[in-house]
Description:
The chain has six helices and four strands; from the N terminus they run βαββαααβαα. It is globular, with a radius of gyration of 15 Å. By secondary structure, the protein is an alpha+beta fold.
Amino acid sequence: MNSRKLAFVTVGVLHEPVGSERVQGFVDRIPAVYGAADQTPGFVARSFRDPTTWEHTWGKPILPRCFDYQVENDRIALTLSLWDDLESVAAFAYAGPHGEALTKSKEWFVGHDLPDYAAWWVEDGHTMTFQEGADKVDALYVNGPTPAAFNFANPFDVNGEPCRLDRNRVKAKQLAR
C-alpha cells in the first residue's frame, strides 16, 4: 500500500462575501460537495469549513501571494484535502455535485489567470496547513508543474516522475460512488 498521500488545495475569491445572494448558490452546495467527497473511493480527509462561521478545522485559510487581492476571509474559498491518488480527486472534482458546481464557478468567483488548485505528495500522517497549500499554489504559479506542486494536466507520481492521469481509473471511481 502507498505510504504517501496526495495533498490537494483549491483556491478562489468570491465576487461577494458569504451571505450575499450572488454567492448563496455556492454556499448552498457545500454540504452536498463534502458528502460527495466522503463517498469517493480514495478520499482520506479534509479540512471542514463551517458555512455559518466560515472557519476551517485545519486552521486559518491563507490566500496565496500570487492572488494579489485585499479581501476579507468571507470571500476566500479554500479547500485542503488528502487523497490516495490523483485519480480519486479527479473522480470527485469532475463529476457529481462538485462537477456541477464547477460549471457555475464564474457566477460565484472572480476570474483570474492563476492556478485554481495544486497537488503534491506527502508522507502518510503528514499534518497539512493552509500556509503549505498557499506555498504550493505560489510554486505552481512561479515554476509551473514540478514534483513539488502540479496539476491534472501535468501530474507527477509518488516518485516525482511525470505521469498521466488514468482516465479509466477515474471513471471506475466515479461509478463506485
